[in-house]
Design brief:
Layout lengths: L6 H34 L10 H11 L7 H31 L3 H27 L15 H33 L1
Helix pairs in contact: 1-3, 1-5, 2-3, 3-4, 4-5
């Protein structure tokens, strides 16, 4: 059953989708900065985070005062990524179901849904067990910290790139039709 939306509802959804996509652009550039710093940074064993991302990690970490500082920071990082990816998934979901059911927007939605599942795993396990366990951490396989950071950073860069490229293609095709 197709629901007819009022003009104010459509405007509200457009604003929400636009804000979600703008957030993803910032999120993507955060990962791009991380990738750049791995290549040229002075300490390649530590993943770079912008000051605003670091502040958000600390803010989320402070919600878990009873945990050791290292665990709190891991939790803060995972919670930040969970909500960041949920924001993008929300935008993709609304865009797909309200405006454009093209194969490009569908691929973006599916790719981001899989990415979100990874963040559900990482967030839940870091809160429950004190360590993030998921596909990008090889479920806790014993590898060096620098290799783990590089592997995870690279995979997450790609996991952000794929839905971003597909939704960009969907948006270009959508607006060319108008």
């Amino acid at each position: 059953m197709k629901v007819k939306l009022s003009r104010p509802s459509i405007i509200t959804i457009v604003i929400i989708v636009a804000l979600c996509f703008l957030f993803q652009i910032a999120h993507f550039f955060e990962h791009l900065a991380q990738a750049f710093m791995v290549i040229i940074g002075p300490d390649r064993t530590v993943l770079f985070m912008t000051p605003w991302a670091t502040d958000l990690v600390v803010w989320f970490a402070d919600m878990f005062q009873s945990r050791p500082m290292e665990e709190r920071m891991l939790i803060g990082m995972e919670v930040l990524h969970f909500f960041g990816n949920l924001i993008f998934l929300t935008g993709l979901f609304l865009y797909y179901h309200v405006f454009d059911k093209s194969r490009f927007s569908k691929i973006a939605l599916i790719a981001q849904s899989l990415h979100m599942f990874e963040h559900v795993l990482l967030t839940a396990t870091v809160i429950l067990f004190g360590t993030p366990l998921g596909f990008t951490t090889l479920f806790g396989a014993p590898i060096s910290l620098s290799a783990a950071g590089l592997l995870r950073g690279t995979i997450h860069f790609v996991l952000n790139l794929i839905p971003s490229l597909y939704i960009a293609k969907a948006l270009i095709r959508f607006f060319k039709k108008r």
